[in-house]
Amino acid sequence: MEKLIIIGFLSVIFLSPSYATTLI
Q1: How many helices (H) and strands (E) does the chain have?
Q2: How far apart are CA 2 and CA 17, in angstroms?
Q3: CA gap 17, 3 in Å, rounded
Q4: φ, ψ of residue 16 in degrees (nearest 5)
Q5: pLDDT grade, residue 11 (50/70/90)?
Q6: 21: pLDDT confidence band, cut at 50, 70 and 90?
Q7: Is residue 12 scored above 70 in pLDDT?
């Protein structure tokens, strides 16, 4: 299940980089 979380997190970063930058 950890892999699914990582894949989902990476997909969010690629789909919405602007949102990922706000988290960083």
Answers
A1: 2, 0
A2: 22
A3: 20
A4: -135, 80
A5: confident
A6: low
A7: yes
Tokens read off for 16: 């919405």
**What single letter denotes the amino acid at residue 10?**
L
CB 20 within 8 A of CB 12: yes
CA distance 15 to 20: 9
C-alpha angle with apex 16: 22 to 11, nearest 5 degrees?
Answer: 115
Q: What's the pLDDT at 3?
A: 92
User: In the numeric block, which tokens belong to residue 9?
Assistant: 């997190």
Q: Is 24 helix (H, G, I), strand (E, B) or coil?
A: coil
